[in-house]
Amino acid sequence: MTAVTSHEQLRALLGEPAKRAAEKDRKELHQLDRDWLAAAPFCLIATAGADGSCDVSPKGDPAGFTLVLDDTTIAIPERPGNKRADGFHNIIDNPHVGLIYLIPGRTDTLRINGRATILADAPWFDELAVKGHRPQFALRVEIEQIFYHCAKAFLRSELWKPDTWQPDALPRRAVLIKEVERPADTLADLDRHYGPDYAKNLY
């Protein structure tokens, strides 16, 4: 194995980015960025703790769930979950976050990097309500860098091509959980938990 341990080695492998790639990032939202956020129902939030440990957490809601506060600030609601809060603990120690916004069927993505603050309440929380439920809290992200990412990863993976999907390549959720997390639970109980009623507790 040959490890790459310097910036010079990395550049020797990759070469230099084209001028258009090196200079495409911005610090303020364009109207097209606002339109993208209004159409996006899903994003990934990457964080790192003070010790360097990392986490990536998916966030999803009806399209437009991210609230644009101004040209350099957005807000992301937090809904009920498993209460681990790995990423949020990271943010308390290290506010830097990386976001990737996806629109189903689109092979490009919108990337935002910035500094996050966890807010327990704010005057605009009512705007983040879904089905009458305000968020538990929200992330306010001050944008430091924003740009569009090319389609190559999605094209290589054929992510949005239904004929490549294999949802049955692994056992159903209840079987996975029993095997790796909760062996003492019965499969029947887990099937009930992850069954049709699971979607009733989203908010």
Tally of alpha and pi helices: 7
Shape: globular
Helix-strand sequence: HHHEEEEHEEEHHH
- In spatial order, strands of the major sheet run 2-1-5-6-7-4-3
Largest sheet: 7 strands, antiparallel
Radius of gyration: 20 Å
Share of residues in strands: 25-35%
Give the assembly state of these chains. single chain
Number of strands: 7
Unreliable stretches, pLDDT < 50, 5 or more residues?
none
Q: Helices and strands: which structural class?
A: alpha+beta
Fraction of residues in H or I helices? 10-25%
Overview of the molecule:
With 203 residues, the protein is α+β, with helices and mostly antiparallel strands. It is 25% helix and 27% strand. It has a seven-stranded antiparallel β-sheet, with helices on one face. The model has no long low-confidence stretch (mean pLDDT 96).
What keyword list fits this structure?
globular, alpha+beta, 7-stranded antiparallel beta sheet, 203 residues, 7 helices
Task: Outline the secondary-structure elements.
Blueprint (H helix, E strand, L loop, with lengths): L6 H8 L4 H4 L8 H9 L2 E7 L5 E7 L6 E4 L2 E6 L7 H8 L2 E7 L6 E11 L17 E13 L2 H6 L15 H8 L6 H7 L10
Antiparallel strand pairs: 1-2, 1-5, 3-4, 4-7, 5-6, 6-7
Helix pairs in contact: 6-7
Brief sketch in words of this structure:
This protein has 203 residues and is an alpha+beta fold. The chain has helices at residues 7-14, 19-22, 31-39, 86-93, 152-157, 173-180, 187-193; strands at residues 42-48, 54-60, 67-70, 73-78, 96-102, 109-119, 137-149.
